[in-house]
Backbone:
C-alpha cells in the first residue's frame, strides 16, 4: 500500500487557505485524543506538502494542551501565546520563512497633567522599580490590549489619582529594548488637561498622590540626574510655555473600512494643506 | 505522615524571587521526565503558598514541550511564547492578579523618501493585502524585535528599493486594533532623506519600485479614496513644504543605565529650554 493510499484512510484536519499561500487549521474546543491528532496531523502535512502550501497555523485553546507536544514533534514551533491559547506554526518550504513576527512591543504611557497654578499631578508608587525611592513621578501605566493610547492615559490618571482629565497630545515617545522579558517597550509621554482637582487615590499600587509645583518636581535629584527624565521634564515645560508641538489624535477610516487613530502635528491637516488641493 | 513531611522528600524546583513578591523557576535545557516534574512542581507550589508568594513564572524551552501539559494541569496558564520557548504563569493569591500583560503591539513603519525633483520612492507589492491592486505605495515593513524604529525604516527602504537613506523624523503614527490576530498595531510614518538614487529592487515581495512625482502618487484613486492614506499624503506634503514638525530621535540614558531613544519635536531641547534653567 502506497503512502497516498494510507493517507486517504485517516481524517484530515479541517483548514482554510490564508492570503499568503498557507493554511489555518480549525481546531474545535472539544477534547481530542493526542494519538488521533498525531495521525491526522501527519496525513494533513503530507497533503499540504503535495499542494505546495507554505505556512501552516494551528491555534490550540489551552484545554487542548495535550496536543502541543504532538504538534512540536511534527515540526511546529511556537508563534505566540495568550492566556487561553497557543499559536503554533510550521513553515513547509525549504526556503527561509516569510511568516509575520509576533507582537514585539509593550506600550506604556506617562501622563503630564498640570493645573492653572503650574502644579503637576504626581504619585509615589509602593511597588516595582520605584518602590521606596521616595520619587514623585507622573502617573504611568500599561496600555491594554485593544485600548487606544489616549484612552489609556485618561484611565490611568483616573485610577491612580481620581482626577478626571482630557487628552491633549502625545509630547514624545521613548523606545527601549529588553525591558520586559526579551520584549521592547514604547512609552508615550502624554499631556492631559485636568477637569477635576480633588485627588482621591484609589489604585493599591500608589502610595500617595498630590499636586506639586512643577519646579519642585523637576528639581528632584532622581529627575535631574537621569538624562531621560530630565529631557521629558524640559519638554513638558516647553509645552506649558507654548513653545512645543506634540502629536494630537485624529480618527480616520482605513482601507479595510475600520477606523483608526492617527497622531500627528496638526489634526486640522485639511486646513493646513488646503492650498495644495 | 503530614503534608509537610511528604513535601520534604521530593526535590523542589530551583527558583529566584522577583521584585513583585513572586518567583521565577529556573528550568535547565536538559530533558526532564514529566512525572518527576509533576511531583516537584506540586511540592514547590505547596511551599510557595506557605511562603505567601504571588506570581510564579516558568519559562519552558521548546525542547521541554513534554512539561507544558503538566504545568497547565497544576493551574498554570500561558503568558507569552516565542519560537523557542513558552512562558507560563500561575497567580497564587485569591485576589485579582497584577501580573504584567504580554507585549500587545506589532510595530510597523512606512517610509516617505523624496528626492530634489519632488519625486517620491514607491513600490508595488506582489503579496498580501495590496497584491494585484496596482497601487504604488511607500516602502513599508515590520520593525524587528529589539530594533529601533529609525533603523527599521532605513533597512526596509534599502531592502525593498536598494536606496540608501538617512532617517529624519517620525511624521505621524497610527494606532489600529485587531489587525494582526487579536493584536494591535502601531504604524509609524517616517521621513527619510535619500543618499543614493539608483533603484535596485531586491526584496522578493516587491514587484516593482520607482521614483514617482508626488502629485501622481497622491492622485491614485486608492490613496485619494481612503481617508487615512489621504491624511498621510497631506502630512508628507506639508512636511516637504516645511510647514510641519515631526518627532526626531535623540538618545538618552535611562535610570537603569541603558540608552534609549526619545522621539520628540526638537532634539535640541537643551537649547529650546535653556532660558528656564
Residues:
Amino acid at each position: 500500500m502506497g503512502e497516498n493510499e494510507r493517507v486517504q484512510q485517516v481524517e484530515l484536519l479541517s483548514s482554510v487557505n490564508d492570503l499568503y499561500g498557507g493554511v489555518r487549521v480549525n481546531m474545535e474546543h472539544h477534547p481530542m485524543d493526542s494519538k488521533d491528532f498525531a495521525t491526522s496531523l501527519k496525513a494533513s502535512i503530507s497533503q499540504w506538502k503535495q499542494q505546495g502550501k507554505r505556512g501552516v497555523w494551528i491555534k490550540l485553546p489551552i484545554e487542548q494542551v495535550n496536543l502541543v507536544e504532538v504538534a512540536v514533534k511534527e515540526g511546529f514551533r511556537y508563534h505566540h501565546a495568550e492566556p487561553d491559547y497557543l499559536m503554533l506554526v510550521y513553515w513547509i518550504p525549504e526556503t527561509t520563512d516569510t511568516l509575520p513576527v509576533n507582537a514585539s512591543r509593550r506600550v506604556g504611557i506617562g501622563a503630564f497633567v498640570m493645573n492653572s497654578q503650574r502644579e503637576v499631578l504626581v504619585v509615589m508608587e509602593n511597588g516595582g522599580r520605584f518602590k521606596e525611592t521616595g520619587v514623585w513621578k507622573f502617573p504611568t501605566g500599561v496600555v491594554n490590549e485593544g485600548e487606544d493610547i489616549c484612552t489609556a492615559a485618561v484611565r490611568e490618571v483616573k485610577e491612580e489619582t481620581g482626577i478626571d482629565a482630557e487628552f491633549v497630545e502625545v509630547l514624545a515617545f521613548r523606545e527601549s529594548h529588553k525591558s520586559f522579558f526579551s520584549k521592547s517597550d514604547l512609552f508615550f509621554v502624554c499631556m492631559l488637561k485636568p477637569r477635576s482637582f480633588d485627588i482621591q487615590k484609589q489604585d493599591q499600587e500608589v502610595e500617595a498622590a498630590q499636586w506639586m509645583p512643577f519646579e519642585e518636581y523637576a528639581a528632584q535629584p532622581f529627575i535631574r540626574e537621569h538624562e531621560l527624565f530630565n529631557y521629558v521634564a524640559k519638554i513638558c515645560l516647553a509645552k506649558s510655555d507654548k513653545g512645543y508641538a506634540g502629536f494630537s489624535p485624529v480618527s480616520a477610516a482605513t482601507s479595510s473600512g475600520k477606523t483608526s487613530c492617527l497622531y500627528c502635528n496638526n489634526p486640522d491637516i485639511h486646513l493646513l494643506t488646503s492650498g495644495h488641493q
